[in-house]
Structure formats: structure tokens, C-alpha cells
TrEMBL record:
Signal peptide stretch: 1-27
PANTHER family from the UniProt entry: EXONUCLEASE (PTHR42924), POLYMERASE_HISTIDINOL PHOSPHATASE N-TERMINAL DOMAIN-CONTAINING PROTEIN (PTHR42924:SF3)
Name this protein carries in UniProt: CehA/McbA family metallohydrolase
Organism: Streptomyces boncukensis
Lineage, top ranks: Bacteria, Bacillati, Actinomycetota, Actinomycetes, Kitasatosporales
Domain of life of the native organism: Bacteria
Keywords: Hydrolase, Signal
Record domain Polymerase/histidinol phosphatase N-terminal: where: 181-245
């Protein structure tokens, strides 16, 4: 079929262009059998290709497998990468009512029945009607992309769908305290190689108090943690929303909340999806915004963000760029968003909790942790061995900690103190303001004390850095960093 005959701007995919193929019918074999479709996509193909599948009555299980070619390409040229997922007979609209799963490019086959589903997919009845297998040509080689999709329907009685068991919204906690968490983690429910059991064990070993499950474009991991949370570990539900113009984390959403990824920055869908996150009680957090990989760099702006992932995994040049861009936001307190640090751990030897976000919260509950993150009452650290305390003291008992504000006369003396217990012996402490770094000292020398005034510094934040590599113009890797505390000029009296 000529591409021009089937290409359309599909409302099902928000505002993204989509190619809808002729429907796959099982009319000649009611309730069972296999069908295969092949096709070719050229460079510049639509973002999504929909294969309608007419499912008759009497089907117990639907199984889908696919493959595509991976021709050689010149260095520096993206090759073929084809994602896959499925929507059921309820439709493919932006609200996601018919969503049944997404595995991206991480699996070449999946099955769905009422009783169970492949990780990344949601168990539930296989009802009659038109389902849609969704292909996402993430990148297409210059030669184009040849694909083959096989759908198998198996007859039988519908089984019973297990009732999902979602994590509780609170753990025992220690009352008002600092709580350590990792809010960007992957398991076998997307492209990770660890099971939820292995991630929970790693989180406890890393000294974490909470974690967030953030699988790519699917909620199937939300119900995968039964028996793994506890009084010592709070598990939050979330998702890594993987679009063509950047990835973002939805943190602490209501379990099962569908979040669409089928749009670009040029479309009008992101604001609506961000509102969905807020209505579900969660936060919007751009992830690894300066990652150089295709589709990873953040293009949506920060006006709808609640925080930003400045530090992703072991410190790299990408993080240094993200830090610089984030620091530029701090000139205007109205425009800034707090910084976060997460491991984005997928497999061994990637370490869960490297880095971690340490949040000052009223208690170890979903609501309190998210409130602390949104308010910027947090710092980032490479491990639980390192604890940071940044504070400012002014006249008449005025005081501020991380995320807080100290108001004093423009010329009033303010004493800023930075403590970093457990810091590496060869690390350096830095106090950074809107003018740049104004004080440094060896971590081994003890607390760093600096006297300033609100007229000199709009904000103060702290960094704890490892030594720079000899001869390198790049600063040393981060060991810890804080969100700012603010110095606000006030009239005398």
C-alpha cells in the first residue's frame, strides 16, 4: 500500500504523526491462529505505526512477537531501533484508557491474558474488538527499516485477573528528619536487568529510606513490589516518560496512573500530561536533561517542572552541563526548580543510591517526601556515608537551612556554615553564590565558615568535590551538593 494512502495525523497519538496499517483479521479462524504482517519504513517515518488487530470472541491470550533488520550504517549515523507496545479494544487516545503495555525495544515478544502478562504489560481480559499493536520507529537507518510482526490468538476461557497490590503511602520513619532516596530506577518491567526483589535489597544495602519505581512508559511495575516494602523502606509509584524530545520522571503518582509519551515539544500534549501528574499527586522532573543520546535532551522547558535531575548516576560531563544550566536558574527565585540526584540504575555493576536525594521531611510518607523535594529542602550525595549541613545565621536569631530564606538588612552580617561529615579526606568544600564560587576549603579542615551580607549573595549553595584529574580543566567529580538557601534583603526594622 502506498504510504500516502495510509499516513494520517492521528488523534490517537495526541499530535504526533502516525501510520495506520490495514487491519489484521482473524475472521477465517475465529478465536485462534497466527497472522504475520511485514512492512518497510523509510527515513523520516512517522513516530508511531498502528497495526489494528480484530480480536474475535473466545480468545484467552494474545501473543505478539516482532523483528526488524539492523543494517550496517556509517559511524555517527543512527541505525534502526523499533519500539513496541499495545492498546486494547477500548482505544488508543491520549487518556490511555486502552493501554495494556509497552516494552520499547527491550523485548521481541510479549503475551497478555487475564491471569498474567509479560513484565511491562498489564494482565486483564482479552476482550473482543479492535486492538492496536503500536510500533515506534525511534531511529531509522538511511536504508530504511524492514519489520515483521506476528500476532497469535489462543482460544479458551478467560481466567481471573489478580487484584493489584500497591505500596502503602507511609513507612515507620523517624518523625521530622533527613530521609535518603533514589527516585530513578529500572527493573525487568522495562529495560532493567534486576528484579524488584534485587532493587529493594540494593536500596536497603545503600542505606535508603525510600525509592521510586520509574519504568519506561508503563505502569506495570507499580504492583510488582508486594512484600518488598516495609517499615524501613517506602516505595513510591512513578514512571520515566520517554518522549522523542527528552525523558522525564513522574514521581509519587497514584498507582496505575497512565502517562502518555506519544508527542514532541512542538505538540501541545506535554502540558496536559503534566497536569495529569499533578492531579495524581505526583511531581514532574526532567531526567538527565543534557544526555547526548538521541531523544534524551530536554526540549520542553522548565516552567512546568517541579524539580530537575541535575545528577544522574556517576558524575559525568553531562551532569556538569546540567549543573551549570540549573545554577543559571537560581538568579530568579521565581523561575528556579530544585535539583535532584538519582542513580538511573539498570543492572550490575550500576549502584542503586549513587547518587541519592536526601530530603528533610516531616515524616516518611509519600506526601511529606514529595513536599520536601518540591520545596528544595534536600541535598544530593554519592552515598549514605556522606551527610551535609548548610545553614546561615543572621542578626536577632535569624536562621535558614537548605531550601529556606534568611531575611536581613542588605549590609547585615550573615554567617554561613558548611559541614560535610563522612566526606572523602581529599575532597574540597565549595560555597557557591550568584557570583560563582566565593569560598573553598579542604574537607579535612572541618566546617567551612563564611561571613557575607544579603547585598553580596542572593543565594548560597554548597558543593563537595573530589580532586580534579591532573591536567584536566574540568572540576573534580561531585561527592555531594545542596539546593540553595536564600538571602533576602529587608529594610531595617
Amino acid at each position: 500500500m502506498d504510504r500516502r494512502d495510509v499516513l494520517k495525523v492521528s488523534a490517537a497519538a495526541g499530535a504526533a504523526t502516525a501510520l495506520t496499517l490495514p487491519a489484521m483479521s482473524f475472521a477465517q479462524s475465529p478465536g485462534g491462529g497466527s497472522r504475520t504482517v511485514t512492512g518497510h519504513l523509510a527515513t523520516g517515518a512517522p513516530d508511531f505505526v498502528y497495526l489494528p488487530v480484530r480480536v474475535p470472541r473466545g480468545v484467552r491470550e494474545i501473543a505478539v512477537s516482532y523483528r526488524y533488520d539492523k543494517p550496517d550504517v556509517p559511524d555517527g549515523t543512527p541505525g534502526n531501533a523499533l519500539d513496541i507496545g499495545i492498546f486494547d479494544e477500548r482505544g488508543t487516545a491520549l487518556g490511555g484508557r486502552g493501554f495494556r503495555g509497552w516494552s520499547g525495544g527491550f523485548r521481541d515478544a510479549f503475551t497478555i491474558s487475564a491471569e498474567k502478562a509479560t513484565p511491562g504489560y498489564l494482565a486483564g481480559p482479552v476482550r473482543p474488538g479492535t486492538w492496536h499493536v503500536v510500533l515506534g520507529p525511534y531511529t531509522v537507518a538511511p536504508q530504511g527499516l524492514d519489520y515483521e510482526v506476528t500476532v497469535t490468538l489462543r482460544r479458551g476461557e478467560q481466567g481471573e485477573t489478580p487484584r493489584p497490590s500497591y505500596p502503602p503511602e507511609r513507612a515507620r520513619g523517624r518523625g521530622r528528619a533527613w530521609y535518603r532516596g533514589d527516585c530513578h530506577l529500572h527493573t525487568v518491567h522495562s529495560d532493567g536487568q534486576r528484579t524488584p526483589e534485587e532493587v529493594a535489597a540494593a536500596a536497603r544495602a545503600a542505606g535508603l529510606d525510600f525509592l521510586t519505581t520509574t519504568e519506561h512508559n508503563t505502569t506495570s511495575g507499580h504492583a510488582a513490589w508486594e512484600g518488598l516494602w516495609g517499615e524501613d523502606l517506602l516505595v513510591l509509584c512513578g514512571e520515566e516518560v520517554t518522549t522523542r524530545n527528552g525523558h522525564w520522571l513522574a514521581l509519587g503518582t497514584d498507582p496505575g496512573t497512565f502517562l502518555d509519551w506519544r508527542y514532541r515539544a512542538r505538540d501541545d500534549a506535554f502540558p496536559r500530561v503534566a497536569r495529569t501528574v499533578r492531579r495524581a499527586g505526583g511531581l514532574v522532573v526532567p531526567a538527565h536533561p543534557n544526555c547526548p543520546f538521541v531523544g534524551c535532551q530536554w526540549k520542553f522547558g522548565y516552567e512546568r517542572a517541579d524539580a530537575v535531575e541535575v545528577w544522574n548516576g556517576p558524575w559525568t560531563a553531562d551532569d556538569e552541563l546540567a549543573l551549570a544550566a540549573w545554577d543559571n536558574m537560581l538568579v530568579s527565585r521565581e523561575d528556579w526548580v530544585p535539583a535532584m540526584g538519582n542513580s538511573d540504575a539498570h543492572r550490575e555493576p550500576q549502584a542503586v543510591g549513587l547518587p541519592q536525594t536526601v530530603v528533610h521531611a516531616r515524616d516518611l510518607t509519600r506526601r511529606d517526601i514529595l513536599h520536601g523535594i518540591r520545596a528544595g529542602r534536600s541535598y544530593l550525595a554519592e552515598s549514605a556515608k556522606l551527610a551535609v549541613d548548610l545553614s546561615a545565621a543572621g542578626p536577632r536569631g535569624a536562621h535558614a537551612a537548605i531550601g529556606g530564606t534568611l531575611r536581613a538588612a542588605s549590609d547585615a552580617e550573615v554567617t554561613v556554615t558548611l559541614k560535610a561529615s563522612g566526606a572523602p579526606a581529599d575532597a574540597t568544600l565549595h560555597l557557591v553564590t550568584d557570583q560563582g564560587t566565593l569560598r573553598t576549603a579542604p574537607a579535612a579542615a572541618g566546617p567551612l565558615v563564611w561571613r557575607t551580607t544579603p547585598s553580596l549573595a542572593t543565594y548560597v549553595r554548597a558543593e563537595v568535590r573530589h580532586p580534579a584529574k591532573e591536567g584536566s580543566p574540568v572540576p573534580g567529580a561531585m561527592a555531594a551538593m545542596t539546593n540553595p538557601l536564600w538571602l533576602e534583603r529587608a529594610e531595617r526594622g
